[in-house]
Amino acid sequence: MKYPTIVRDTIDFISDTEVCNIGYAEGKLRDSRPYRLEVWSSYGITNATIFISLIDLEEKSEDDIKRILIDNNIIEVIKDDIYITEVEDTKDNSFLSINVPLEGSDVTINKLLVKIKDFEF
Fold it and tell me: What is the pTM of this model?
């Protein structure tokens, strides 16, 4: 099965002064599904947002989705607080948008296990 990759080239990463964009990573899950991960900070909390295709995941629970990220060595869940929504990209493909709080005020909330690259503006 071919899964789409989210289109993010039309996103304005520099106009929101409340958000500091830190970096990103792209890769593939074990089922060949591509993911895009973006790390950003706002109001003292550093977060990772992970985008994966919704295809074949429509009936999965939030715990199932979290397990996919854990089993693929993307995150280590410590305190959870993970928030999952659905989004569409500019090509009308549906994705899960998984927001994972990572750290804030000298406390680790969850741990990112992949290396990120700097954004290219």
Answer: 0.91
